Structure formats: structure tokens, C-alpha cells
UniProtKB/TrEMBL annotation, chain A:
<dbReference type="InterPro" id="IPR050319">
    <property type="entry name" value="ABC_transp_ATP-bind"/>
</dbReference>
<dbReference type="InterPro" id="IPR003439">
    <property type="entry name" value="ABC_transporter-like_ATP-bd"/>
</dbReference>
<protein>
    <submittedName>
        <fullName>Oligopeptide/dipeptide transporter</fullName>
    </submittedName>
</protein>
<dbReference type="GO" id="GO:0015833">
    <property type="term" value="P:peptide transport"/>
</dbReference>
<dbReference type="InterPro" id="IPR003593">
    <property type="entry name" value="AAA+_ATPase"/>
</dbReference>
<comment type="similarity">
    <text>Belongs to the ABC transporter superfamily.</text>
</comment>
<dbReference type="InterPro" id="IPR027417">
    <property type="entry name" value="P-loop_NTPase"/>
</dbReference>
<dbReference type="InterPro" id="IPR013563">
    <property type="entry name" value="Oligopep_ABC_C"/>
</dbReference>
<keyword id="KW-0547">Nucleotide-binding</keyword>
Automatic annotation (TrEMBL), chain B:
<dbReference type="InterPro" id="IPR050366">
    <property type="entry name" value="BP-dependent_transpt_permease"/>
</dbReference>
<feature type="transmembrane region" description="Helical">
    <location>
        <begin position="177"/>
        <end position="199"/>
    </location>
</feature>
<dbReference type="Pfam" id="PF00528">
    <property type="entry name" value="BPD_transp_1"/>
</dbReference>
<dbReference type="InterPro" id="IPR035906">
    <property type="entry name" value="MetI-like_sf"/>
</dbReference>
<keyword id="KW-0813">Transport</keyword>
<feature type="transmembrane region" description="Helical">
    <location>
        <begin position="6"/>
        <end position="27"/>
    </location>
</feature>
<feature type="transmembrane region" description="Helical">
    <location>
        <begin position="68"/>
        <end position="92"/>
    </location>
</feature>
<dbReference type="InterPro" id="IPR000515">
    <property type="entry name" value="MetI-like"/>
</dbReference>
<feature type="transmembrane region" description="Helical">
    <location>
        <begin position="112"/>
        <end position="139"/>
    </location>
</feature>
Length: 270, 271
């Protein structure tokens, strides 16, 4: 459904001296994989591994330096905004920052209705009420502003907005990493329920392999812009092939590990 | 909150004086009477008369009209031209934005007073010429502010979210950028209003602004400057009026910014 073929993205920093070369940052190097319909596809990597760049490329919000991104056989990169309407309808994104991803000057009902308004989909009022209920918010939430909600509630608003145009794919970029541990599980469960309910394909990005294991069935591991391992999440978790993945798995704190005296220092050592 | 109230009261007084002057003034502000020259404050003339025997209170009231008129037109020109230019420079194609910026720098580098003198020479010295000149000279400050704050808004995740929702450039500028920079623009309007009032006074003082016999606070200063040592009252009265007007608009702008920012709502409820 979503296919990446040798995708690279190079960011060029501004010159530090007038004659020196411009520093280049390779956010992604020659990444290829395919996400099949109905999958719950996890992307794991530490910060700076290119996860967010990947999300932007898949969502058509950024252009790759090389390679192609296709959605349902249609090319995503190199197209104008007007030509991307198929993607805007079928693929929606939930962003990481629950504060920054909602316009502080818009009422919640306008935020949720934005994809409908932008894509001229009729029946907005009823749809907004439906969505508020689906994500577990009260009907009067629509009249209020984002700052009147907690982080968890704001992620629910983001989810409602993403589901508004009835997409087939939901891309979640670290949707719980900015939240309190106590509400993470709630949002993750809500996300999983909604993915089931609406039969969505999920692309879930996280730095935390244990969260991905909880939500996804397939996982891709990124390191410094390169794809190091891809496969069934249980298989990767139980018998990681790449040394970096092994390190990631070992870095997950477990009760047994803590009891047998494994400390943070042991985890740092390769 | 206190700023808002003090600013609103000062601005309200000026507006009130200007409005009343349409219906009633103690005397005809342009009536010259040699017998009444340079009288001190009295029951009939509350602030006395100037060297032509004109009533100071009446001149002040009608002068308030000129002040507001100039402020509204000058700031209106600056905000309505400068804000869209700035947003366009931030959101539009890079090369076009670059051209807008350079043109902006050009106007900014041009001395405002020289611009007003040129305008006066070309179109004749009048209140209208003065306020258009002030407006044009103020455009760059609006454009710069609008561009800088629009760039900030455009880098947020909610703009990214709007793009993935299917919004295109112009819609994002109108729906997200403008509402989010409106607070800053309003503050800039209020501050610029104060500056425009001051500039009009300065231009009228130089004879490039409001022409006699129309009363203006700047001209009241000019006409009485030789009497500074003998009758300081004649300069203090319009001087204080100008100072209070500038202060009022500045405080009002400050107060409005706090008022219009929904993110500060909680802080306001507490404080």
C-alpha cells in the first residue's frame, strides 16, 4: 500500500563560512520497504534516526532527495499539493506534540472539522459530534479551545481530526511520548481500538520498542537514517538479527533484569 | 489589565473630546480676537487663549479630531499594506518573498521625514499628504513584524497538521497565520498610532502637515514656540495632550495583547 524505494533525504545546513562547503545531514539513506494494507507497522529508532523525516515523506509533507514514495501505486513525491488530494483523503497524521499540533486560536470543533472543510466534505457538524464521542470526549468539548484540555485529551482531539475524513491509513508520530506515563496506556488502547473499529492501516513511530510491541505486528528498525532490520515484531523482539536491535531489546528495562542487578551502566556497554 | 483600563480611558477621553467638538466647543476655535490675546485661564477660557486670542480648549478639542484622523489613516495604510506583504514574504515563493523584503528595506532605509517632505512637495502640504507619508513610512515595520511572526507560525506542527488535512498555502495563511499573529499586529497598531500622532505633530510643527486655520496639536506648538519663555502654558497644553495620547495608545496596545491571547486566559483569571 505504501512503498518506499531507495529513499534518501539530505538536509543542507546553511554555510558556516563564506567559502566552506555546506554541511550535509543525511537524515535517511537508501531506505526501501513496503507497508501492506491492514498492517500495524511500527518504526523504531532513537532520536535523530530519521523517524520524523520518514513520516513527513510518507505523508507528502517533505520531498526526498532521491528515491520514490508511492501510495496505492500512485507517486507521492514530486507532486503539487493539488495533485495530492488522494493522499490527503486516505492518509492522516497524528503528531507528537499535543500542545503544538493544535492551533491555539481555533475551537476544537473547527480543528476536528478542518480536514472536512479543506477537502469540501459535507455533513461536518454531525461528523464532529460522532468523532468526539468516538475518542471519548464530551459533546461540549467542541466549543472550547485546546489550552483548556490536558495532554491526553489533546491527543484525543488530534485523533478525532485525523479520523475525520475517514482515512484508510493513520500515521502516528510518537503519539504518546509527550504524555504522562499514566495516560499513555489509555491513548494507546484508544488508538488500537480505533484502528480495529475503522479497519485502518497503522504506521506507528516510536523510540520505544516495548510500546511498538504492544501496538504493532511488524516493525522496522532505523539507525542513523538506515534501515537495519525489518520483520514480525515478536520475531524481532525475541531473536533480533542486527546487533543494534539486540541492544535496543536489551535496553528495555525489565523487572527480572532489575532484580538480578542489571543497572543502567550495564545497558550502555555494548 | 490596569494598562488596558488606563489606556482605554486616555484614548476614550480623546475620542470623546473629538466627538463633542462636532456638536459643541466653548468658542469657535478659529475665531481671532485681538482684545483677548494671551489671556490666562479664566471662567470663560478654561485654559486661556493664544496669541491670536483663540480659545485653547476649543482648539484642543478640534485638534483631537485631526490627531485621531491621522492616526487611523496612517496606521490603516501601514497595517493593511504591511501585514499582507509580510505574510506573503514568509509564505509565498522564496524569490518573490526576497524581492518584497528588499523593497521593504529600501523604504525602511529612506528617512521618514524626507519622504514626508517629498510627498508635501509633490502633492502639496496637507493633513492627508502627511498621514499617507506617515503610513507609507510605517509599512516596513508592519511587514517585518508580520513576516517574522508568520515564519514562526509556519514552523509549528499545527500548520503541518493543516497541510496533511489538505489545506493549501493561501488557506493556511488566512486560517492559521493571520489569527495567530493578529495579537502582535494589534499591539503594533497601537504603538504605531502613538508614533503617527507624534509624527503628525512634528510635520505640522514644520509646516508640512495640517495647514492653518485647521487646529492641530502640532501646529499649536509651532505657533507658540516664540512665547516659550513668556507663556509656557501655550506649549505645555498641547505638549501634554500629545504625550497623553501617545501614552494612551501604547498602554491600550499592551492591554489588548494580553486580552486577545487565549493562552493567557488562565494567568488573567489568577492575576
Amino acid at each position: 500500500m505504501i512503498k518506499l524505494e531507495s529513499v534518501s533525504r539530505v538536509y543542507r545546513r546553511s554555510r558556516t563560512s563564506a567559502f566552506g562547503p555546506r554541511a550535509e545531514v543525511h537524515a535517511l539513506r537508501d531506505v526501501s520497504f513496503e507497508i501492506e494494507q491492514g498492517r500495524r507497522f511500527g518504526i523504531v529508532g532513537e532520536s535523530g534516526s530519521g523517524k520524523s523525516t520518514l513520516v513527513r515523506l510518507i505523508a507528502g509533507l517533505d520531498q526526498p532527495t532521491a528515491g520514490t514514495v508511492t501510495f496505492d501505486g500512485q507517486r507521492v513525491n514530486g507532486r503539487s499539493e493539488r495533485q495530492l488530494s488522494f493522499l490527503r483523503r486516505d492518509l492522516q497524521v497524528v503528531f507528537q506534540d499535543p500542545m503544538g499540533s493544535l492551533d491555539p486560536r481555533m475551537r476544537v470543533r473547527d480543528i476536528i472539522a478542518e480536514p472536512l472543510v479543506a477537502q469540501r466534505i459535507p455533513g461536518q457538524e454531525g461528523r464532529v459530534a460522532e468523532l468526539l464521542e468516538a475518542v471519548g470526549l464530551t459533546a461540549d468539548a467542541g466549543r472550547r479551545f485546546p489550552h483548556q484540555f490536558s495532554g491526553g485529551q489533546r491527543q484525543r482531539i488530534s485523533l478525532a481530526r485525523a479520523l475525520a475524513p475517514k482515512p484508510r491509513v493513520l500515521v502516528a508520530d510518537e503519539p504518546v511520548s509527550a504524555l504522562d506515563v499514566s495516560v499513555r496506556a489509555q491513548i494507546l488502547n484508544l488508538l488500537a481500538d480505533l484502528v480495529d473499529q475503522f479497519a485502518l492501516t497503522l504506521v506507528f513511530v516510536s523510540h520505544d520498542l516495548s510500546v511498538v510491541r504492544h501496538v504493532c505486528d511488524t516493525v522496522a528498525v532505523l539507525r542513523a537514517g538506515e534501515l537495519v532490520e525489518i520483520g514480525d515484531v515478536e520475531r524481532v523482539y525475541r531473536s533480533p538479527e542486527h546487533p543494534y536491535t539486540r541492544q535496543l531489546v536489551q535496553a528495555i528495562p525489565t523487572l527480572r533484569g532489575a532484580l538480578s542487578g542489571v543497572t543502567a551502566e550495564d545497558l550502555i556497554r555494548p | 489589565m490596569r494598562n488596558l483600563v488606563i489606556g482605554a480611558v486616555l484614548v476614550g477621553l480623546i475620542v470623546l473630546a473629538a466627538l463633542i467638538s462636532f456638536l459643541w466647543t466653548p468658542f469657535d476655535p478659529t475665531q481671532v480676537d485681538a482684545a483677548l490675546r494671551l489671556q490666562g485661564p479664566s471662567g470663560a477660557h478654561w485654559l486661556g487663549t493664544d496669541r491670536f486670542g483663540r480659545d485653547l480648549v476649543s482648539q484642543l478639542m478640534v485638534g483631537a479630531r485631526t490627531t485621531l484622523y491621522v492616526g487611523i489613516v496612517a496606521v490603516g495604510v501601514a497595517a493593511l499594506v504591511g501585514t499582507p506583504l509580510g505574510v506573503f514574504a514568509a509564505a509565498g515563493p522564496r524569490w518573490l518573498g526576497e524581492i518584497v523584503l528588499r523593497a521593504n528595506d529600501l523604504v525602511l532605509a529612506f528617512p521618514a521625514l524626507l519622504l514626508a517632505i517629498m510627498f508635501g512637495a509633490a502633492f502639496g502640504a496637507s493633513t492627508l499628504t502627511a498621514m499617507i507619508a506617515i503610513g507609507v513610512a510605517t509599512v516596513p515595520s508592519f511587514a517585518r513584524l508580520a513576516r517574522a511572526s508568520a515564519l514562526q507560525v509556519l514552523s509549528t506542527e499545527y500548520v503541518l497538521a493543516a497541510r496533511s488535512a489538505g489545506r493549501t498555502g493561501p488557506a493556511i495563511s488566512v486560517r492559521h497565520v493571520l489569527p495567530n499573529i493578529a495579537g502582535l499586529i494589534i499591539v503594533q497598531c497601537s504603538v504605531s498610532f502613538g508614533i503617527a500622532v507624534l509624527a503628525e505633530a512634528a510635520l505640522s510643527y514644520l509646516g508640512l502637515g495640517t495647514q492653518p486655520p485647521t487646529p492641530s496639536w502640532g501646529r499649536m506648538l509651532q505657533e507658540s514656540q516664540e512665547l516659550l519663555a513668556v507663556q509656557p502654558r501655550l506649549l505645555i497644553v498641547p505638549g501634554v495632550a500629545i504625550a497623553l495620547a501617545v501614552l494612551g495608545f501604547t498602554l491600550l496596545g499592551d492591554g489588548l495583547r494580553d486580552r486577545f491571547d487565549p493562552r493567557l486566559e488562565g494567568a488573567r483569571a489568577q492575576g
